[in-house]
Design goal:
about 525 residues, alpha/beta, TIM Barrel, eight-stranded parallel beta barrel, three-stranded mixed beta sheet, Isocitrate_lyase, Isocitrate lyase
Amino acid sequence: MSSIQPYTGEISLAESLIRENGAPWNDIEAEAVARMRLQNRFKTGLDIARYTAKIMREDMAAYDADPANYTQSLGAWHGFIGQQQLISIKKHFGSTKRKYLYLSGWMVAALRSAFGPLPDQSMHEKTAVPGLIEELYTFLKQADARELGGLFRDLDKAREAGDEVKAQDLQNQIDNFQTHVVPIIADIDAGFGNAEATYLLAKQMIEAGACAIQIENQVSDEKQCGHQDGKVTVPHEDFLQKIRAVRYAFLELGVDDGVLVARTDSLGAGLTKQIAYVKEAGDLADQYNSFLDVEEVDANNVGHGEVLISRDGKLVKPKRLPSNLYQFRAGTGEDRVVLDCITSLQNGADLLWIETEKPHVGQIGAMVSRIREVIPNAKLVYNNSPSFNWTLNFRQQVFDTWSEEGKDVSQYDRERLMSVDYDGTELAQEADRRIQSFQKDAAREAGIFHHLITLPTYHTAALSTDNLSKRYFGDEAMLGYVLNVQREEIRQQIACVKHQNMAGSDIGDDHKEYFAGEAALKAGGAHNTMNQFAAE
């Protein structure tokens, strides 16, 4: 980010520059230059990456000091969605502190691929990922320009009215303006190829503005969604090569404090594509292979084409499937997760991501406790996934806790707890309380620094569109839109009710005035129907 002066300082700098260039620049207004500079503080994606990396590092240190300082984000699949999130956050909370955006590979595959909707299996074109990062930051920067433009227009009105107190207050707001630009944690999947391919894509993502990149230990050409079956992991050295590749990309581009999130899918992955290369007994590769499902064999009775390995002086045959994948022993998932996490942190990762099959503080905390025996400040990014049935999971957790405590649960059917019949019960209310406090509890008890929801706006878009379609194409017709959308936008002061303004019409009018003066043909005059949405 370029060095930005206070408002009056920017005006003075522009005045000096205009004077230096003499008569040809006589029609350039210093205050207009200052306003345009303030509205575009971030000149490149690398400016954004360096600025937001510093924010994340400060937030990580704050969390280490007090787990109550955890951070949050929602996934965004379009620049407008990300922009509206940050506008809403500033509106309701007055600050973007500890609020990020998440870029989900799942949503890129499902919504942004030129091939059309795809499953989360790294089949989408990888250039769509840096393209979405750039788009998100373009919309966030436009949110800055829009809000500042409003402050500038209010400042002009205060000056015209001779209200010096109001003018000074607005100038203070301009000088202390908080940008909508926040960190994005961006999903690089399994790297889309070998380590060189990972490095090249990471560079594009960083150049687009990403300060934090999340990479997973699945094999790139067999990658599955974290909540699908058939996941296949790679030996640690293969994964560490990609971690190093991402770090090199950060360092090459001068984002020295870029954040690397190492994700392990080992808890739900029962397969590996290859047997790790062992140099000596007990090394990392040998530990990886020790989890394989094997059976001892007689060297004199080996079948044709079978693969054998030596373990403790004995020949064993790893269980190999027709797909040529090797199977891990059942029940080894948590041990593999712990080894993955310790190894990643010891080799350059900054944060961990453990993909789980359910949101359970005790399960996550138990694994983190084991990791922290080796890496005391280990901390997680955690997916508060829409793939979990949160209602059923937490009702069953309460049911199980009460059963263990000897409380009478005979009125409840554990397998039917999702039913609306239980909504008003004591058990359901306790489950909702636990859902509400899950992030706070998990930050305190399970080492979770960052809570995200991968694809919330995928679901909200579907739900709101379904509701609107049902009403608009039904008996309510136009009332279905007015009653449930427009009227609510006005009453809740949703900024995009003035959609022309949100799309940049007022910013364009300002520029027209800078460029053409009195000759400017502006869109925001008295006959613009957007004026019907003036505040009550």
